[in-house]
Amino acid sequence: MIIPAGFIGDYQVLGHSASGRHSEIEAVASERLPDARAVYALTTRPKGPGSERLIPQLNADLVTNLRGLPKSFVRTYDVFEAQGQVCLVTDFVAGETLAQVLATVGGALPPLTAIAVAIELANAMAEAHGISDGGGRPWIHGDLCPSHVVIGYDGRIRIADFGRALIEARLSGDPRAGQPHAGYFAPERATTLKDVDVRSDVYSIGLILYEMLTGEPAIQGRDEPARLERAAKPKIPRLSSKARVGELLEDLMRRVLAPNKADRLQSAKQLADTLTALKSGKLSTWNTRAELERLLQQRFSHRARAMQTLMVRWTQQISGGNTGDLLPAPRGQVPRPRSIPPKAQEARPFVEPVILEPIEVAPTDDLSAPGLLPRPRTPLSFLRGVVWSSLGAALVIGSVPFWPAPAQASALRTLGVIAAGGHRVVQAIATVLVQLAG
After folding, report:
1. What's the pLDDT score for residue 142?
2. Is 92 helix (H, G, I), strand (E, B) or coil?
3. 3-state secondary structure of 224
């Protein structure tokens, strides 16, 4: 349910930001939040069975016990019920999820970027695992997936939804509670919740890295129940069958994605250190934030500009300034406001743009340690291109007798020029076509 501009509880609703799989995200502000002049996110989803127990538990765990989460996480500040919705107030991040980035790229990320992102995720999770719950056990994310990795338009990586799905699953005894992403579950997370520990999050990071390197999820299925069933008894194709990798990276992925958690790397810190040890000379100087910022500005420039406009408007609403529309501004400049009738001064929803076309990932020239190389062009692929081009040209030339005389003469002159120079194969094809057309 999209909440109209106004107030919900103690929070001023500034406008609609985005729609999720089961939720809506609004931009809000409040004096009870750490920064009264900042924009925060209010996520709403329909109230379900057990919400009376769930809301106090989420407030106790996410708001109070996890107050010390590092800034690399999207932190939760309040959980409450309003208008038949369960509402969570969190940090607001202007950016895209890793899932959206992968879908827009249309395949794998550049290998250096994929490995560098995995290192950042592992380091962040290692820091979060250092926070203990009431029983002295480390906190677990329990639903780490590309949809919960948010990349800001400035290139910063933030991890969202820490612990929520696992808390709901433990309250209900059902691994599927909380609308989790079963395709990124460790086997123990998909079966028995009692055995979930930090190694379950390590497994999820491995699945994310697998997808970033290959361009496709390791665990697939037509729906969530099917993916949950496959996650419980995983049969993950070898990484080397999906991408060209070296033995070191192949062996590491085998250890990270071991079905038996006793055979896995034992901590997120160990994963981060092992990935860092694989660095080649280029990766050692790789600026992950700059590369991600460049990628997002390249593929999501219109969304970044739209969000910049909304952020200016929302900030003005908080400060009591002009809440009117904002005129478009050249790239890199802040939009300027204009006055509009008072009745129209309400926050408009952020309209999702059309899906962008896929782009080709530029191959890297130095990945000797991980061993991931661009796929070479084979003689067969070249010959296939020549054959298809020749067939297309033959269809065009076959219609030459039906062209006007000046056009026929021009076409024959062009083919004669081609036949006189260039590659031997092209010369032979052009000569044959000239004879056919003549």
Report:
1. 87
2. coil
3. helix
Across 403-426, average pLDDT: 60
Give residue 323's identity as a one-letter amino acid code. Answer: T
CB 41 within 8 A of CB 90: yes
Residues 79, 80, 85: CA angle, nearest 5 degrees: 115
Inter-residue contact 268 to 205 (CB < 8 Å): yes
Residue among 61, 91, 143, 197 flagged as catalytic: 143
In the block, tokens 């999770």 appear at: 125
Amino acid found at 60: A
In Å, how far from its chain's centre is CA 268?
20
- pLDDT for position 311: 92
Q: Which residues contact 417 (CB under 8 A, 6 or more apart)?
A: none
Higher-pLDDT residue of 6 and 215 is: 215
* Whole-Å CA distances, 122 to 72, 73, 247, 379: 11, 12, 21, 41
β pairing state of 24-29 and 326-327 = unpaired
Mapped onto helix, strand or coil, the DSSP state of residue 302 is helix
Residues 265-278: tens digit of each pLDDT: 999 999 999 888 87
Sheet containing 95-97: which strands, arranged edge to edge? 95-97, 149-152, 157-159
Nearest-Å Rg of the Cα atoms of the chain is 27
Active site (annotated) includes residue 143: yes
**Phi/psi at 409 (nearest 5 deg)?**
-65, -40
H/E stretch holding 251? helix 247-256
Domains of the chain: 1-92 (3.30.200.20), 95-293 (1.10.510.10), 379-437 (no CATH)
Instruction: Say what the pTM is.
Output: 0.71
| Model confidence pLDDT, tens digit, residues 191-207 | 877 788 899 999 999 99
DSSP β-bridge partners for residue 187:
none
* Whether the predicted pLDDT of 332 surpasses 60: no
Residue 256 has pLDDT above 60, yes or no: yes
CA proximity to 233, closest of 260, 201, 193: 260
For residue 11, what are the β-bridge partners?
Answer: 8
The answer to whether the beta carbons of residues 62 and 112 sit under 8 Å apart is: no
Q: Is 426 helix (H, G, I), strand (E, B) or coil?
A: helix
State how far the Cα of 257 lies from the Cα of 167, in Å rounded to an integer: 24
Q: Are the CB atoms for 204 and 182 separated by under 8 Å?
A: no
Check pLDDT > 70 for residue 169.
Answer: yes
Distances (CA, A) of 55 to 32, 38, 50, 51, 167: 19, 25, 9, 6, 11
Q: Is 271 helix (H, G, I), strand (E, B) or coil?
A: helix
How far is it, in rounded angstroms, from Cα 134 to Cα 128? 15
